[in-house]
Amino acid sequence: MFDFIRKHTKLTMGFLFLLIVPSFVLFGLDGYTKSEGTGAVVAKVDGQNILQPEWDRAHLREVDKMRASMPSLDAKLLDSPEARYATLERLVRERVLAAAATQLKLNTSDQRLARELQESPEIAALRKPDGTLDMERYKQLLAAQGLSPEMFEANVRSDLSNRQVLIGIASSGLSTASAADIALNAYFEKREIQIARFSAIDYVAKISPSEADLEQFYKANENLFQAPEQANIEYVLLDMESVKKSITVSDADLKSYYDQNIQRLSGAEERRASHILITAPTTALDTDRQKAKAKATELLALVKKSPDSFADVARKNSQDTGSAPSGGDLDFFARNAMVKPFADAAFSLKKGDISDVVESEFGYHIIKLTDIKSPKQRSFEEMKAELEADVKKQQAQKKFSETAEAFTNGVYEQSDSLKPIADKLKLEVKTAAGILRKPVPGSAGAFVNPKFLNALFSPDAIEKKRNTEAVEVASSQLISGRITQYTPARTKPLTEVKDIVRQRWLAVRSAEEARKEGTAKLESWKANPALAVLPESLVVSRDQGQRQPAQLIDAVLRADASKLPAFSGVDLGPAGYAVVKINKVVPREPSPEATLKQERNQVAQWWTSAENSAYYNLLKERFKTTVLVPKPVEAKPGSQVNSETGAAQ
């Protein structure tokens, strides 16, 4: 079928045109917009599907935000299966809360939305000196995130509505002092113990496997000795950098850009001024403001008469505690660093001039301009390299969508080779060996992207060595690959992994021997405590574990202490076994009142968090929430394998 389409492209396009045009007439463009989302269903909330492409886009947005806020963050952490699953959980949470907000009719008013937008620091940074929003920069900021102003404001409105769902739970959490003290006393309780260790490593020299033992272990645990399927591939990557390389900018274009943007590129003028402030906030009574203005007017006459006394007058009279000790000096500042009335006055003065009384939201100012720092205008030649990079970046952003479309079509239309599209777009065909369907934990980059790997290891790609579709693996980054050599999964022969089999057999059997002797001692000492020969005692608690294994501390503090001394056995997994004698309970030491208050507040926060989580889980049930993607499970270090069944323990 697909071969026919590739060989008869024009005929197929004509046939599809006849089918599609009438359906536009019947159903309209909106129907196509709504149905464009296709892909595997990864979760369901309130009867609505969350699709793989939605998950992919949400994760790309998360990654972009994280990289922007923490450029030094290890990219491997962002591309891990755990990080991707966390994004899906957040997406599900948003849908659950949105469904609850709709059911509870928790709407956000225009006034509340406006207030939220006004308080946003990102938007505040886009305000002009006159306080109005720079709409052009606002649109550019949102466009970089793939949003229009309407989409962004709808998202903020939805987020505000969603917050209302849980705010009642968050604000009503309550934990009494007595309940908190019970929990704290139990948590910080100490116990005096003695420990007898039976370490697995001590038994390794006492056991030796036969050939039959190794063969039996190998057959029971073949899944441990698998060589996964893998492929050698060639691939082509289209990103912003590769598009930049294809762009050539003439000197004439650079000069024109320089002339048009010289003021912006040179930076803003800065001014240095000193001021005398008589405070009178806008909330003050009119009589108080009039008194403040009269005082400022009096001081203005004084400094106008003797300009050299400005610093002394400021030190004695200015109510700006930050600048008064230094004679009112405010150092250099840009226009947008000050409130508008102050900035307008300061930037209208000549060096050495003193302003009239200037009214602002803080009170009444007298301003003396002491210096002007004009931005250094760099020459065209000095800025040429910087200008070229800037222009190329802008042109690449405009050209990328066009190039991406050509890339997407090209890898499909000539699916037996990547060279034609690479030559057409001046891209490099690269190679990679040993690519796995399930990447090694900690890997990063395009080769851990699930969508790309699913396409790469699809039957069509494996059997016919066809190009994969163009897959978006990061913001403005498309990749297509094709398999050049495929090796299916296989069980490695015993001869190849014999040393590993021996090591695993020894680890399992030595831990078994340690447990066997440890449990025997435990029963013996319980029956006759006098037989127990134990090292010196130590005192442990949850916050002072004395470098003991966590499972040992947990077992000790959970043990019944109603009758002491008491013996308890603790399975330490691959490390072996421990027998613990609990001698006595050591009560918690009283905390200072300030510390106790802080601890009680922490318990209250935990309690509120638990209530919040319980309510959210109830909402998930109410709206029939299902996540269809298995949660990644990291293999626990040192997990042991049953020698008979091969099951992990």
Brief summary of the model shown:
The chain has 649 residues and is of the alpha+beta class.
* Rg result: 36 Å
Strand content: 15-25%
Low-confidence stretches: 1-37, 635-649
Q: Please count the helical segments.
A: 24
Instruction: Tell how many strands the DSSP assignment holds.
Output: 17
Terminal residue distance: 49 Å
Helical residue percent? 40-55%
Q: What integer is the average pLDDT?
A: 82
Question: What composes the largest sheet?
Answer: 4 strands, antiparallel
Helix and strand content put the structural class at: alpha+beta
Q: If strands are numbered along the chain, what order do they take across the biggest sheet?
A: 14-3-16-15
* CA-based shape: extended
Question: What are the defining features of this structure?
Answer:
4-stranded antiparallel β-sheet, disordered C terminus, disordered N terminus, 17 strands, alpha+beta
Walk me through this protein's architecture:
The strands form 5 sheets. A 4-stranded antiparallel beta sheet has the order 14-3-16-15, with helices on both faces. It has a 4-stranded antiparallel beta sheet with strand order 10-5-12-11, with helices on both faces. The protein is built from 24 helices and 17 strands. 51% of the residues lie in helices and 17% in strands. Among the domains are: 1-36; 190-211 and 493-586; 230-252 and 381-488; 268-373, Chitinase A, domain 3, CATH 3.10.50. With 649 residues, it is α+β, with helices and mostly antiparallel strands. A hairpin with a 2-residue loop joins strand 11 and strand 12.
Topology of this protein?
Layout: H1 2-7, H2 9-27, H3 29-35, E1 41-45, E2 48-51, H4 52-69, H5 75-78, H6 81-103, H7 110-119, H8 121-124, H9 135-143, H10 149-171, H11 177-188, E3 190-199, H12 211-220, E4 226-227, E5 230-239, H13 240-245, H14 251-266, E6 270-279, H15 286-305, H16 310-317, E7 329-334, H17 340-346, E8 358-360, E9 363-373, H18 380-413, H19 419-425, E10 429-436, H20 450-456, H21 459-464, E11 471-474, E12 477-487, E13 490-491, H22 494-527, E14 538-540, H23 550-558, E15 566-571, E16 576-586, H24 593-622, E17 626-627
Antiparallel strand pairs: 1-2, 1-17, 3-14, 3-16, 4-13, 5-10, 5-12, 6-7, 6-9, 8-9, 11-12, 15-16
Helix pairs in contact: 4-6, 6-10, 10-24, 11-24, 12-22, 14-18
